[in-house]
Specification:
- Chain B: Its cofactor is [3Fe-4S] cluster; [2Fe-2S] cluster.
- The complex is a heterodimer.
- Chain A is of the alpha+beta class.
- Chain A has a domain of 136 residues: Flavocytochrome C3, Chain A, domain 1 (Alpha-Beta Complex), CATH 3.90.700.10.
- Chain A has 17 helices and 21 strands.
- In chain A, helix 4 packs across helix 5 and helix 5 crosses helix 12.
- Chain B is built from eight helices and seven strands.
- In chain B, the strands form two sheets. Chain B has a five-stranded mixed sheet with strand order 2-1-5-3-4. In chain B, strands 6-7 form a two-stranded antiparallel ribbon.
- Chain B is elongated.
- The termini of chain B are far apart.
- The relative contact order of chain B is 0.14.
- Classes of the chains: A alpha+beta, B alpha+beta.
- Chains A and B meet through helix 3, helix 5, helix 6, helix 11 and helix 12 of A and helix 1, helix 2 and helix 3 of B.
């Protein structure tokens, strides 16, 4: 038997479909070359959209406005609850309203550099171009962005950049943008153009004659498993950060849709690129079910420090100024507290590893607003961050106006995802992936306030243009019916899986397995990774998987509202995806962005990239559960932003 | 802490429900209320019993999924969502009653889970600005005075949890509906649909079977986002204005 680590390397990814020519003309070129679908013919096409976050909500609304028949799904009770709603800080756009030297090219440059040169230039440039249209669109929808007294839009700066290009709605930017997309979607639901299925979870992809033609989904109220057919399927199901059990993701955010699509032929790219966010509230105990982010915008005015001395347990107020180490300001004087997330997280880990961490277990650093309150006044700080301070106080029972916040890094976002070409199409024709579900724009590290930008760029502008092309080229696909062998097989597999989960009747809960896997991943595939650690994890994961199928206990039946069954079903997929993440991390023996290999660092402990060996996106092909996958490389060519070792000093 | 929980159990929409009593030990004051329920559910699963079903997702107080009536109060004793309520708000030996939202327009699906799709239909009736993708003018073309933008934001903060309905003696959805109307109607972008929005949304609200407002004010007290009671007055004003205008046409 071959070991999982004996992966083979297949043919490189041949064509990303990105047009040639000057980078600022490529999107225009692609749109012009794309086939259009006559408005009268659009209603003959059905498009399935799974997920209703920023990407899915905006895509569903826009495709329906264009005249397509959209059938949309979300596991939540309402499309308004998708986890985009929890994004706090803001959305980037190259408007240059501040006249501070920003431009589309600078946003493009910052994003490629911030991603540590592991993203596709053409995609990133398009993202920067579209960013300006997103703000216009959202304002027109009534998104109540923060404004100046003159009535114009306010902006702020964010980690990893030196311009002020982040538009925001207090600490609830994600909520306001999502409600904008949800309301646009609601208008289309009312108009009969979108058939909305809330509380319905996609459990498999239906591939007929090599094309994505539908999904298998379970009605979470009745348990009924049904099939839905379409001419194209769009996955907007978010990231897979919940593999780690503890993350800032919503409790039910999951990887099932993208993992099932991967099993059906869609390549999975850069699974090891996960973002550990530096400013989360530290955990308090074993009961912890999730971690809460404190917006990165706090780093604009808060100062991060730990005591200079190890094991200094004095309350923060009793530690004099000269015994504090404002380590980000010390190590990175020009960016200071605003270094990118990966760097801030690793620096926090380092000072805690040195024994200088604060709070219970020494797993925390201070984020101090004393200077900001003195400089701006408490009222101004309240106006800017009031809701975040309230949230912090509610969770920790400490008053951040009086005592510095304690923060620690936590899993927040996954840059990896389904591999997509320039059209956002996966390797399965007719299957598209948008938003966090794809791997496309952030390379090895995402900059703050760029997730909202990418989700909305994909949904409002990119997909509606590229999907036209696919449907225009495939105007008359054969009708798919339930008796097609591929459909019957997908349904049977789903039903068998549900039955098997219910029939084991073991002695461990789904959560206990999820927690065990999460702890393993955090230890060996978290902020720092090593060859020996990853090999340990790769040995352990199949054992947990085997134990899962022997000892899992799921009460109740499949024909009812059964949250334990939902959970167990998601854990099955985490147990496979985790293995691919570790393999990807093992094979990439360089450090880049959020992927830090202990063996590959500069003398100062910074991440050392190996551009000669690893300037590619790793797209993995599934071959079987526990079987070694096949690696396909997409070479990354940098024509405009030349790779340098990132410096934020 | 050791607590006694009395929890509403109901197998499905058609079944009769009843309160069941459970004892929970080792509750830490740092736990969130939902984490306390997680530990109960872990025990129930291992005992082969059906765990308590409840809606929850972000656990950060923003998605609006969680929805428990705790000791008679929507979202419990603090002014926050259930997921942000911590066990330090209770004391050792307490007995806690946990029920679903109770309102005619929110039928129970199972245990503590209710169907709030009526809210979605109210938004579908007019809680939007018609601005198809691609049609937007430059964002700075229409300045919005800061006080108006702030007022819009204050109402836009609604998370659609339904606590206002659960708290209202009449099961009214006035606060939810008015929050969206005030958010959009105060903005210049929302002006063209100002009248149809309020008329259509209010009509849908009535059709869904929500009660009327008698100014009990319980909604605003329960609202975890602090949507003010004056939101309802604002909606009534908009509705009167729109009705008069419609009468003139």
């Amino acid at each position: 038997m071959t070991s999982y680590t004996d992966y083979t390397t297949g043919a490189p990814v041949a064509d990303t479909k990105a047009p040639a020519g000057p980078i600022h003309e490529r999107w225009d070129t692609r749109r012009f070359e794309a086939k259009l679908v006559n408005p009268a013919n659009r209603r003959k096409h059905t498009v399935i959209v799974v997920g209703t976050g920023l990407a899915g909500g905006s895509a569903g609304a826009t495709l329906a406005e264009q005249g397509y028949r959209v059938v949309q799904f979300c596991y939540q009770d309402s499309p308004r609850r998708a986890h985009s709603i929890a994004a706090q800080g803001g959305i980037n756009a190259a408007k240059n309203y501040r006249n501070d030297g920003d431009s589309i090219h600078r946003l493009f440059y910052d994003t490629v550099k911030g991603g540590d040169f592991r993203a596709r230039e053409s995609n990133v440039h398009r993202l920067a171009q579209i960013s300006v249209e997103i703000i216009d669109q959202c304002v027109a929808q009534g998104v109540p962005f923060a404004r100046e007294y003159g009535g114009l839009l306010d902006t702020r700066s964010f980690g990893g950049v030196q311009v002020s290009r982040t538009f925001y709605a207090r600490g609830q930017t994600g909520q306001q943008l999502l409600l904008g997309a949800y309301q646009a979607l609601s208008r289309q639901i009312a108009a009969g153009n979108v058939e909305m299925h809330p509380r319905t979870e996609m459990l498999d992809l239906i591939v007929v004659d090599g094309r994505a033609r539908g999904i298998v989904a379970r009605d979470l109220i009745t348990g009924k498993i049904s099939t839905y057919f379409a001419d194209a399927v769009v996955l907007a199901t978010g990231g897979y950060g919940n593999v780690f059990y503890l993350s800032t993701n919503a409790m039910n955010s999951n990887a099932t849709a993208i993992w099932r699509a991967h099993r059906r032929g869609a390549y999975f790219a850069n699974p090891c690129f996960t973002q550990i966010h530096p400013t989360c509230i530290p955990r308090t105990g074993d009961h912890q079910s999730k971690l809460t982010l404190m917006s990165e915008s706090l780093r604009n005015d808060g100062r991060i420090w730990v005591p200079k001395a190890k094991g200094d347990t004095r309350p923060p107020a009793q530690i004099p100024e000269d015994e504090r180490d404002y380590y980000l300001e010390r190590i990175y004087p020009s960016f200071g507290n605003l270094v990118p997330r990966d760097i801030a997280s690793r620096a926090a880990k380092n000072v805690c590893d040195e024994g200088r961490g604060v709070g219970p277990g020494g797993q925390g650093v201070y984020l101090d607003f004393a200077d900001a309150i003195e400089r701006m006044g408490r009222k101004a700080v309240e106006a800017k961050y009031g809701n975040l301070f309230d949230m912090y106080q509610r969770i920790t029972d400490e008053d951040p106006y009086e005592v510095p916040m304690r923060i620690y890094p936590a899993v927040h976002y996954t840059m990896g995802g389904l591999w997509v070409d320039y059209d956002l199409q996966t390797t399965v024709p007719g299957l598209f992936a948008i938003g966090e579900a794809n791997f496309s724009d952030h390379g090895a590290n995402r900059l703050g306030a760029s997730a909202l930008m990418q989700g909305l760029a994909d949904g409002y502008f990119v997909l509606p243009a590229t999907l036209n092309d696919y449907l225009g080229r495939n105007p008359r696909l054969d009708e798919v019916t339930g008796d097609h062998p591929a459909v019957r097989e997908a349904v049977a597999e789903t039903e068998q899986r549900v039955e098997r989960l219910l029939s084991v009747d073991g002695d461990r809960t789904p959560d206990s397995f999820h927690r065990e896997l999460g702890e393993l991943m955090w230890e060996f595939c978290g902020m720092a990774r090593s060859d020996s650690g990853l090999r340990k994890a790769l040995e352990r994961i199949p054992q947990i998987r085997e134990e899962f199928w022997r000892r899992i206990k799921v009460p109740g039946t499949g024909e009812e509202f059964n949250q334990s069954l939902e959970k167990a079903n998601r854990v099955v997929d985490y147990l496979e995806l985790a293995e691919l993440m570790c393999l990807d991390a093992l094979h990439r023996t360089e450090s880049c962005g959020g992927h830090f290999r202990e063996e590959s660092q500069t003398p100062d402990g910074e991440a050392a990239r190996k551009d000669d060996e690893f300037s590619y996106a790793a797209a993995w092909e599934f071959t079987g559960t526990g079987e070694a996958p096949v690696l396909h490389k997409e070479d990354l060519v940098f024509e405009y932003v030349h790779p340098t070792q990132r410096s934020y000093a | 802490m050791k607590l006694t929980l009395r929890v509403w159990r109901q197998k499905n929409a058609d079944a009769d429900g009843a309160m069941s009593t459970y004892e929970v030990d080792d509750v830490s004051p740092d736990m969130s209320f939902l984490e306390m329920l997680d530990t109960l559910n872990e025990e129930l699963i291992l005992k082969g019993e059906d765990p308590v079903a409840f809606d929850h997702d972000c656990r950060e107080g923003i998605c609006g999924a969680c929805s428990l009536v705790i000791n008679g109060d929507a979202h419990g004793p603090e002014r926050t969502t259930t997921c942000q309520l911590h066990m330090r708000s209770f004391k050792d030996g307490d007995t806690i009653d946990i029920e679903p939202w109770r309102a005619a327009a929110f039928p129970v699906i199972k245990d503590l889970v209710v169907d709030r799709s009526a809210f979605d239909r109210i938004i579908q009736a007019g809680g939007y600005i018609t601005a198809p993708t691609g049609s937007a003018p430059e964002a700075h073309a229409t300045p919005v005075p800061k006080p108006d933008a702030d007022l819009a934001f204050e109402h836009a903060e609604c998370i659609g949890c339904g606590a206002c309905v659960a708290a209202c003696p009449n099961g009214a959805a006035m606060l939810f509906t008015s929050a969206k109307i005030n958010h959009l109607n105060v903005l210049p972008q929302g002006a063209p649909e100002r009248e149809t929005r309020v008329l259509d949304m209010v009509a849908q609200m009535d059709e869904e079977g929500f009660g009327g407002c008698t100014l009990a004010g319980e909604c605003a007290t329960a609202c975890p986002k602090g949507i003010p009671l004056t939101s309802i007055t604002g909606m009534n004003k908009e509705w009167l204005r729109a009705t008069r205008k419609a009468g003139k046409r």
